[in-house]
Amino acid sequence: MENKTKFRKKQNIFRTDAWKRFSKNKLALAGTVVILVLILAAVLAPVISQNDPYISLKDGAGKVMKNMSPAESHLLLGTDSLGRDEFARLVYAARVSMSVGLVAVGISSVIGIILGAVSGYFGGVADMIIMRCVDVVNCFPVMFLIIIIATILKPSIYNIMIIMGLCNWTGTARLVRGEILRVREMEYVQAAVSLGSTDFRIIFSHIIPNVMAPIIVEATMQMARAILTEASLSYLGVGVQLPTASWGNMLMEANNLSTLTLRPWQWVPAGTCIFLSVLSINFIGDGLRDAFDAKQKK
Amino acid sequence: MGKYVRKRLLQAVPVIFGITILTFFIMKLAPGGPLTGMISPRVSSESLQRAREALGLNKPIIVQYWNWLKELVQGNFGYSTYNGQDVLAMILERLPATLLLTVTAFVFSFIVGIPLGVYSATHKYSKGDYGLTVFSFIGISVPSFFFGMGMIYIFALKLKWFPTSGFGSSTFHGTGMALVLHKLRYLVMPALVMSLSNIATVMRFARSSMIETLNQDYIRTARAKGLAEKAVIYRHALKNSMIPVITIFGQSIPNLFGGAYITEKVFGWPGMGLLGVEAIGNRDYQVLMGLTLFTAVLVLLGNLLADIMYSFVDPRIRY
Q1: Whether B259 contacts chain A with CB within 8 A
Q2: pTM, rounded to two decimals
Q3: Which residues of B touch A282 (CB under 8 A)?
Q4: Interface predicted TM-score of the whole assembly (ipTM), two decimals
Q5: Nearest one of A137, A227, A235 to B26, comparing CA atoms
Q6: What is the pLDDT of residues B61-70, one digit of tens each?
Q7: DSSP secondary structure of A85-129
């Protein structure tokens, strides 16, 4: 019992240590702040935007307020080609874009962890088959693979989440496999084996918690990529479908020369949101990598 | 050497089967399935019946796969579900434009990325290194369509330096050098947009590889015998540190081709990506399948080439 508390204490010291390293990284901190603001905006979308993102606004005379600049419309970001409030669409799109990213990474991480663990722990035929599958999936440019499946299955938010999850697991699988190969022969694993633990228990309650740090870093980086992928798919028209707003399809709607020149409020904010969220998550991921890696000193 | 190449080639065989099996099953989800699209829409109804039987449309799935694979190997990628054209011909017609764009972006990203990475590594933790690190994060984070739209806005619409889209104007009638220059103006922006994230990746990789090399014993020896720092870096460290950068060569091919969809749509570049975008709009599954298979095989070949190149410059890898 006493030993257990001692161990806990040690773990806490490590955690504060990691946090100290993370908080020294200015870029990572800035990224965290930006992401928290975006998440807050997404969660509080109905509170901070007074207009419905799906309703065309009308002025006093009953005319639809099409393509109005912020100054004309007295709205923060003006209106789009159908007279909908751009700011409302932007914050509601934050919900869509970030949840698609989150769920997709959740799915791919679970698949990657399980397959990587099986591959690394059991080795042999299972390892060979799984690694060849990784090779096969890696041969397809992920965009091509997602695009063809999404086109066939009729794009919807849920399909996009699942398809992205199913196509992006290879990185995590490789990583987990490598980590497991590294710790498999360590004494604590051998001890668990000699105590008669089941393979399942050894993998999921002894090994995985100890290789969690690189998995978290990988998942963070994947989250950034997932948001970018969703935006690209929606821009191409195979991602989130109109009228549901996502940052990517807001840019798709604005992709014509007249909007590009005359109505920058219809495309600059959405593009900036994608850019800022992806950049921030990448900074956070980089900060986490440095923070978890105790061996590296500055 | 020969043994390694043989082994590597053999490893590629199951991957090729994997690629085709995966594509086959994806196409199973499409209306009509993988085989219907293989029959030319121009045949009469009785030969249609014969063709359906020859392809084994009511035979077991393994037979279907085998027949489908045989058609593929013979160069039959099927016919467009939209306009009935031969898919392989459609792809090959668009291939040169995409290759021109991709290869330009590829070469450009290495020409820019490697010197920046080397600078970063030799000036580790300096202001310049810090700035380049931030730049590389920006490079991998900016959505290429947003970057492309911004470029069009600034350099095509406001400054009018470059045309907004396409690949050559129909009213231009120059020849020789004038034609090349004319086309080049269309190439600059899409190639730049396409290479940005790759520049960032190459740079990060070159930096870490260079830093690792500079920690090697033989670099210390070179310094200890009194060589000038320039000679140490450019003659001893550079060549050795560039070896792992070859792996990036293989890795960036799928990203570049995947990026072609976006870049070509933004700039109306008449390549495979734009063909794909049109196919999405028309729900033309057969063309999408052809594109996916075609690029997958290109990627496989690219990786194979990168591995063999790697083993050529770094014999240690063969063991």
Answers
A1: yes
A2: 0.85
A3: 137, 140-141
A4: 0.83
A5: A137
A6: 788 888 888 8
A7: BHHHHHHHHHHHHHHHHHHHHHHHHHHHHHHHHHHHHH-HHHHHH
